[in-house]
Write a structure and sequence with these properties.
This protein is of the alpha/beta class. Helices cover 34% and strands 25% of the residues. Helix 4 (155-172) crosses helix 5.
Length: 301
Protein backbone atom coordinates (compact mmCIF):
# COMPACT_ATOMS: atom_id res chain seq x y z
CA UNK A 1 0.00 0.00 0.00
CA UNK A 2 2.78 2.43 0.92
CA UNK A 3 4.62 1.55 -2.30
CA UNK A 4 1.46 2.24 -4.32
CA UNK A 5 0.97 5.62 -2.61
CA UNK A 6 4.62 6.52 -3.26
CA UNK A 7 4.32 5.86 -6.98
CA UNK A 8 0.94 7.64 -7.15
CA UNK A 9 2.41 10.71 -5.45
CA UNK A 10 5.35 10.73 -7.84
CA UNK A 11 2.99 10.47 -10.80
CA UNK A 12 0.98 13.42 -9.50
CA UNK A 13 4.15 15.50 -9.10
CA UNK A 14 5.28 14.68 -12.64
CA UNK A 15 1.85 15.52 -14.05
CA UNK A 16 1.70 18.80 -12.11
CA UNK A 17 5.17 19.81 -13.33
CA UNK A 18 4.27 18.93 -16.92
CA UNK A 19 1.10 21.00 -16.69
CA UNK A 20 2.99 23.99 -15.27
CA UNK A 21 5.64 23.70 -17.98
CA UNK A 22 3.08 23.56 -20.78
CA UNK A 23 1.16 26.47 -19.27
CA UNK A 24 4.14 28.80 -19.11
CA UNK A 25 5.67 27.60 -22.37
CA UNK A 26 2.60 27.93 -24.58
CA UNK A 27 0.49 30.75 -23.15
CA UNK A 28 -0.25 33.44 -25.71
CA UNK A 29 -1.01 37.11 -25.64
CA UNK A 30 -4.67 37.96 -25.11
CA UNK A 31 -6.54 41.22 -24.46
CA UNK A 32 -6.30 40.38 -20.74
CA UNK A 33 -2.63 39.35 -20.92
CA UNK A 34 -0.20 41.76 -22.54
CA UNK A 35 2.91 39.58 -22.44
CA UNK A 36 3.83 35.97 -23.08
CA UNK A 37 6.72 33.58 -23.42
CA UNK A 38 6.36 31.24 -26.39
CA UNK A 39 7.24 27.54 -26.62
CA UNK A 40 10.86 28.43 -27.42
CA UNK A 41 11.16 30.66 -24.37
CA UNK A 42 11.04 33.91 -26.35
CA UNK A 43 9.33 36.96 -24.90
CA UNK A 44 6.36 38.40 -26.77
CA UNK A 45 4.62 41.76 -26.54
CA UNK A 46 1.84 43.09 -28.80
CA UNK A 47 2.96 45.28 -31.70
CA UNK A 48 0.10 47.72 -31.03
CA UNK A 49 0.52 48.83 -27.43
CA UNK A 50 -1.25 52.16 -27.76
CA UNK A 51 0.06 55.52 -26.66
CA UNK A 52 1.82 55.75 -23.27
CA UNK A 53 -0.28 57.10 -20.42
CA UNK A 54 0.46 59.84 -17.88
CA UNK A 55 2.98 61.52 -20.18
CA UNK A 56 4.57 64.65 -18.71
CA UNK A 57 7.05 66.88 -20.54
CA UNK A 58 9.10 69.71 -19.03
CA UNK A 59 11.45 71.89 -21.05
CA UNK A 60 14.94 71.95 -19.53
CA UNK A 61 16.95 73.75 -22.19
CA UNK A 62 16.19 75.69 -25.37
CA UNK A 63 18.99 77.04 -27.53
CA UNK A 64 19.53 77.82 -31.21
CA UNK A 65 20.56 74.22 -32.02
CA UNK A 66 18.35 71.92 -29.94
CA UNK A 67 15.98 71.52 -27.02
CA UNK A 68 16.21 69.17 -24.04
CA UNK A 69 13.03 67.94 -22.40
CA UNK A 70 12.52 65.84 -19.30
CA UNK A 71 9.88 63.22 -20.11
CA UNK A 72 8.00 60.82 -17.88
CA UNK A 73 5.42 58.18 -18.79
CA UNK A 74 3.67 55.25 -17.18
CA UNK A 75 4.90 51.75 -17.95
CA UNK A 76 2.95 49.07 -16.09
CA UNK A 77 3.42 49.85 -12.38
CA UNK A 78 6.24 52.37 -12.81
CA UNK A 79 6.82 55.92 -13.98
CA UNK A 80 9.79 55.95 -16.37
CA UNK A 81 11.87 59.13 -16.61
CA UNK A 82 13.86 60.11 -19.66
CA UNK A 83 15.58 62.94 -21.52
CA UNK A 84 14.63 63.86 -25.07
CA UNK A 85 17.08 65.88 -27.17
CA UNK A 86 15.40 67.39 -30.22
CA UNK A 87 17.16 69.21 -33.08
CA UNK A 88 15.75 72.64 -33.88
CA UNK A 89 13.86 73.04 -37.16
CA UNK A 90 13.76 69.25 -37.55
CA UNK A 91 11.58 67.70 -40.21
CA UNK A 92 11.31 63.89 -40.20
CA UNK A 93 14.40 63.54 -38.04
CA UNK A 94 15.69 60.00 -37.46
CA UNK A 95 15.28 58.87 -33.87
CA UNK A 96 17.53 57.01 -31.46
CA UNK A 97 16.53 55.30 -28.21
CA UNK A 98 19.53 54.65 -25.96
CA UNK A 99 19.47 52.32 -22.95
CA UNK A 100 22.28 53.06 -20.45
CA UNK A 101 24.42 50.48 -18.69
CA UNK A 102 23.45 48.98 -15.34
CA UNK A 103 23.58 51.54 -12.53
CA UNK A 104 24.07 54.32 -15.11
CA UNK A 105 21.59 57.16 -15.36
CA UNK A 106 20.21 59.01 -18.35
CA UNK A 107 22.41 62.04 -17.65
CA UNK A 108 25.47 59.94 -18.49
CA UNK A 109 24.41 60.00 -22.14
CA UNK A 110 24.63 63.80 -22.33
CA UNK A 111 27.78 64.02 -24.47
CA UNK A 112 26.63 61.42 -27.00
CA UNK A 113 23.14 62.95 -27.08
CA UNK A 114 24.41 66.47 -27.83
CA UNK A 115 26.75 65.23 -30.55
CA UNK A 116 23.95 63.32 -32.24
CA UNK A 117 21.31 66.03 -31.90
CA UNK A 118 23.74 68.43 -33.60
CA UNK A 119 23.84 65.92 -36.46
CA UNK A 120 20.05 66.01 -36.81
CA UNK A 121 18.98 63.04 -34.66
CA UNK A 122 16.26 63.01 -32.04
CA UNK A 123 17.84 61.23 -29.06
CA UNK A 124 15.82 59.70 -26.22
CA UNK A 125 17.38 57.98 -23.21
CA UNK A 126 15.75 56.73 -20.02
CA UNK A 127 16.51 55.87 -16.42
CA UNK A 128 15.85 52.16 -16.34
CA UNK A 129 14.19 50.51 -13.34
CA UNK A 130 16.22 50.76 -10.18
CA UNK A 131 18.14 53.76 -11.52
CA UNK A 132 17.89 57.54 -11.05
CA UNK A 133 14.49 59.17 -11.04
CA UNK A 134 12.71 56.01 -12.17
CA UNK A 135 13.90 54.20 -9.05
CA UNK A 136 12.53 50.94 -7.75
CA UNK A 137 14.25 47.69 -6.80
CA UNK A 138 16.00 45.20 -9.06
CA UNK A 139 15.34 41.66 -7.81
CA UNK A 140 17.85 38.85 -7.98
CA UNK A 141 17.63 36.45 -10.90
CA UNK A 142 16.26 33.80 -8.54
CA UNK A 143 13.53 36.12 -7.24
CA UNK A 144 12.65 37.14 -10.80
CA UNK A 145 12.43 33.47 -11.79
CA UNK A 146 10.15 32.80 -8.83
CA UNK A 147 7.94 35.66 -10.00
CA UNK A 148 7.83 34.11 -13.47
CA UNK A 149 6.85 30.71 -12.07
CA UNK A 150 4.06 32.41 -10.08
CA UNK A 151 2.67 33.84 -13.35
CA UNK A 152 3.82 37.42 -12.78
CA UNK A 153 5.65 39.59 -15.28
CA UNK A 154 9.35 39.50 -14.29
CA UNK A 155 11.28 42.74 -13.90
CA UNK A 156 13.75 41.55 -16.55
CA UNK A 157 10.82 41.45 -18.97
CA UNK A 158 9.65 44.88 -17.81
CA UNK A 159 13.02 46.35 -18.80
CA UNK A 160 12.17 45.34 -22.36
CA UNK A 161 8.61 46.60 -22.08
CA UNK A 162 9.83 49.99 -20.82
CA UNK A 163 12.07 50.29 -23.90
CA UNK A 164 9.10 49.48 -26.13
CA UNK A 165 7.02 52.15 -24.37
CA UNK A 166 9.84 54.63 -24.93
CA UNK A 167 9.55 53.74 -28.61
CA UNK A 168 5.77 54.25 -28.45
CA UNK A 169 6.32 57.70 -26.96
CA UNK A 170 8.93 58.75 -29.51
CA UNK A 171 6.61 57.79 -32.37
CA UNK A 172 4.03 60.29 -31.12
CA UNK A 173 6.36 63.30 -31.36
CA UNK A 174 6.08 65.66 -34.29
CA UNK A 175 9.00 66.09 -36.65
CA UNK A 176 10.35 62.58 -35.98
CA UNK A 177 10.28 59.92 -38.69
CA UNK A 178 8.51 57.07 -36.90
CA UNK A 179 9.73 54.62 -39.55
CA UNK A 180 13.37 55.52 -38.88
CA UNK A 181 14.00 54.91 -35.19
CA UNK A 182 17.05 52.95 -34.04
CA UNK A 183 17.50 51.36 -30.64
CA UNK A 184 20.86 51.02 -28.94
CA UNK A 185 22.34 50.26 -25.59
CA UNK A 186 25.46 49.98 -23.55
CA UNK A 187 26.48 46.90 -21.52
CA UNK A 188 23.37 45.66 -19.66
CA UNK A 189 21.20 48.18 -21.50
CA UNK A 190 22.42 46.71 -24.78
CA UNK A 191 21.08 43.30 -23.79
CA UNK A 192 17.60 44.74 -23.43
CA UNK A 193 18.06 46.72 -26.66
CA UNK A 194 18.71 43.49 -28.57
CA UNK A 195 15.60 41.84 -27.13
CA UNK A 196 13.39 44.90 -27.72
CA UNK A 197 14.71 45.22 -31.28
CA UNK A 198 13.89 41.58 -31.94
CA UNK A 199 10.42 41.73 -30.33
CA UNK A 200 9.29 44.86 -32.23
CA UNK A 201 10.09 44.71 -35.94
CA UNK A 202 9.35 48.42 -36.37
CA UNK A 203 12.79 49.47 -35.14
CA UNK A 204 14.95 50.45 -38.12
CA UNK A 205 18.04 48.77 -36.66
CA UNK A 206 19.98 47.94 -33.50
CA UNK A 207 23.42 48.99 -32.26
CA UNK A 208 25.12 47.77 -29.10
CA UNK A 209 28.24 48.71 -27.15
CA UNK A 210 30.24 46.45 -24.82
CA UNK A 211 27.80 43.62 -24.33
CA UNK A 212 27.07 39.94 -24.82
CA UNK A 213 24.47 37.32 -24.09
CA UNK A 214 24.65 34.46 -21.62
CA UNK A 215 25.69 31.71 -24.02
CA UNK A 216 22.27 30.12 -24.60
CA UNK A 217 22.31 28.40 -21.22
CA UNK A 218 19.55 25.91 -20.51
CA UNK A 219 18.95 23.66 -17.51
CA UNK A 220 15.62 22.33 -16.26
CA UNK A 221 12.64 23.09 -18.54
CA UNK A 222 11.15 25.95 -16.52
CA UNK A 223 14.53 27.48 -15.67
CA UNK A 224 15.62 27.10 -19.27
CA UNK A 225 12.53 28.92 -20.56
CA UNK A 226 13.11 31.80 -18.19
CA UNK A 227 16.83 32.09 -19.01
CA UNK A 228 16.06 32.00 -22.74
CA UNK A 229 13.50 34.77 -22.28
CA UNK A 230 16.14 37.16 -20.89
CA UNK A 231 19.15 36.05 -22.98
CA UNK A 232 19.87 38.19 -26.08
CA UNK A 233 21.69 35.23 -27.64
CA UNK A 234 18.28 33.67 -28.35
CA UNK A 235 16.93 36.87 -29.95
CA UNK A 236 19.77 38.42 -31.89
CA UNK A 237 19.08 36.48 -35.11
CA UNK A 238 15.52 37.92 -35.12
CA UNK A 239 16.87 41.43 -35.84
CA UNK A 240 17.57 40.45 -39.47
CA UNK A 241 16.85 41.70 -42.15
CA UNK A 242 17.37 44.97 -40.28
CA UNK A 243 20.98 45.85 -39.54
CA UNK A 244 22.86 45.09 -36.33
CA UNK A 245 26.11 46.88 -35.44
CA UNK A 246 28.23 45.57 -32.57
CA UNK A 247 30.96 47.63 -30.86
CA UNK A 248 33.43 45.93 -28.52
CA UNK A 249 37.00 46.30 -27.30
CA UNK A 250 39.59 43.60 -26.73
CA UNK A 251 40.51 45.58 -23.61
CA UNK A 252 37.04 45.14 -22.10
CA UNK A 253 37.52 43.95 -18.51
CA UNK A 254 33.80 43.40 -17.83
CA UNK A 255 32.53 41.48 -20.87
CA UNK A 256 35.24 39.32 -22.48
CA UNK A 257 35.88 39.99 -26.16
CA UNK A 258 35.38 36.32 -27.06
CA UNK A 259 31.99 36.33 -25.31
CA UNK A 260 30.87 39.32 -27.39
CA UNK A 261 32.06 37.61 -30.58
CA UNK A 262 30.11 34.49 -29.62
CA UNK A 263 26.90 36.51 -29.26
CA UNK A 264 27.61 38.25 -32.56
CA UNK A 265 28.01 34.85 -34.26
CA UNK A 266 24.33 34.07 -33.54
CA UNK A 267 23.18 37.14 -35.51
CA UNK A 268 22.20 36.98 -39.17
CA UNK A 269 23.12 39.39 -41.94
CA UNK A 270 23.20 42.32 -42.31
CA UNK A 271 25.52 42.70 -39.35
CA UNK A 272 28.85 44.33 -38.58
CA UNK A 273 31.33 43.91 -35.72
CA UNK A 274 33.44 46.98 -34.95
CA UNK A 275 36.49 46.45 -32.79
CA UNK A 276 36.83 49.51 -30.57
CA UNK A 277 40.31 51.03 -30.04
CA UNK A 278 42.34 49.35 -27.29
CA UNK A 279 42.22 52.52 -25.17
CA UNK A 280 38.48 51.91 -24.81
CA UNK A 281 37.83 49.60 -21.88
CA UNK A 282 34.13 49.03 -21.21
CA UNK A 283 31.43 51.27 -22.64
CA UNK A 284 31.67 54.45 -24.65
CA UNK A 285 34.94 56.30 -25.17
CA UNK A 286 35.98 59.33 -27.18
CA UNK A 287 38.03 57.27 -29.62
CA UNK A 288 35.02 55.24 -30.82
CA UNK A 289 32.63 58.08 -31.63
CA UNK A 290 33.76 58.74 -35.20
CA UNK A 291 33.06 55.11 -36.11
CA UNK A 292 29.77 55.14 -34.22
CA UNK A 293 28.52 58.26 -35.99
CA UNK A 294 29.49 56.79 -39.36
CA UNK A 295 27.58 53.56 -38.74
CA UNK A 296 24.51 55.33 -37.36
CA UNK A 297 24.39 57.47 -40.51
CA UNK A 298 24.49 54.32 -42.62
CA UNK A 299 21.73 52.67 -40.59
CA UNK A 300 19.47 55.74 -40.61
CA UNK A 301 19.56 56.22 -44.40
Amino acid sequence: MHKYLKYSFNAILIAAFAFAFLYFATRSISPQREWAVDSNGLLQYPSDRGKPENVKINLLEDNITYTIEKVSFKSRDAIIYGLLYMPKNANNAPGIIMLPAARAGKEGQNYLAKELVKRGYAFFTIDQRGIGETGGNMPSTQDDFNSFVAGNEPVNHLFVYDALRAFDFLKTRKHIDSSNILIGGESMGARFAVIAGAVDKNFKGVFVISTSGYGKQSNLPMEGKFMASIDPDWYIDKISPRKLVFFHSKSDNVVPFAQAQNTFSFAKEPKEFIEMPSVCIHGQCQEMYESLFEKLNEMAK
